Predict the structure.
Amino acid sequence: MPPLLQALSGHRPSTLPVWFMRQAGRSLPEYREIRQGTKMIESCLIPELAAEITLQPVRRHRVDAAIFFSDIMVPLRLAGVDVDIAPGIGPVIASPVRTASDVRALVEHELGDTAMITEAIRIITAELSTTPSGEADWTPLIGFAGAPFTLAAYLVEGRPSRDHLAARSLMLSDPDAWAALMEWCADLSGAFLTLQVDAGASAVQLFDSWAGSLPLADYAAHVAPWSRRALASVEGRVPRLHFGTGTGHLLEEMARGTDALGIDYRTPLDEAAARLPGVPLQGNIDPARLLSGWAALEAHAHDVIARGRSAVSHVVNLGHGVPPETDPTILTRLVETIHQA
Ligand code: CP3
């Protein structure tokens, strides 16, 4: 079994598995080259292009997993929501969902044609199963989706926001509309995860980028049950990772209903392991350290590995995505260092 899948099921493989969130993307010159002239969401919908971008970092860095090149906004687009990813801004929703009647209109949308996703994953898994050495040490593909709260935050705010006041006030002022919105988002994410697993993904990650803006009580009451519903869609089929940023106060709640938990760079792994006995952990090299010289990065990576030994098992990753300005040769060297540790 590949090291990633061993670690996600609570075992300690002979080499530590490593992959990087946002490994496919702007840190790679071959990505910038191939993306020229194609908009972000459109490039996710062209199977050959999405497959090629997914495979670029695997060939270059020899990471232990591919992460499917897509975006948490893609299922919204496939469900007919008018969403775009504006360069330098991020996701923008043409008609934000602000009222109970906006929610009623939204939940009429259903996931449409998804054949291009299935086809992209077929191309990817075909290449990942045949290694250069011809051995059976294939590389798993990780599928993913946005968690219901992060999707809902974009739908309500209409664009990236720091404190998600519009979303959090809808949650508190109209709990029924909020529940209907979250149910729709959870089922959309669940359907997107299921589709990727059906097509050949070997693990999934649910990204809750904005959950950290919530107090624990609101997260537990109004958000966590919907994330668990999305995660439950592939329970028992593949290992499930759950990840959010700024979620140090939510870790116990986020660990319920998942197989493994991603930890951001703010919480040391030994501290997370003490709070979450028996839970496989992923993380948590500080992305800023990628930009601060090799010696400091190497020492930090060894510290992360040492702290990760307190967990039942450990998948090395960053504590958030690869910054676009990262020198890709540093990432390759980091993978070699982790594999030798
Ligand atoms: O290697 C990978 O992780 C590739 C797949 C991937 C992308 N987005 C590609 C992408 C994944 C897993 C995501 C998840 C995603 N998308 C999240 C959750 C993770 C996180 O970072 O917190 C969120 C919140 C989004 C929404 C989104 N899409 C944002 C905020 C942005 C950045 C906007 C900008 O221009 O700064 C995007 C765009 C995006 N998604 C890019 C990539 C490679 C960059 C766009 C480009 O290259 O033109």
In short: The longest helix spans residues 175-199.
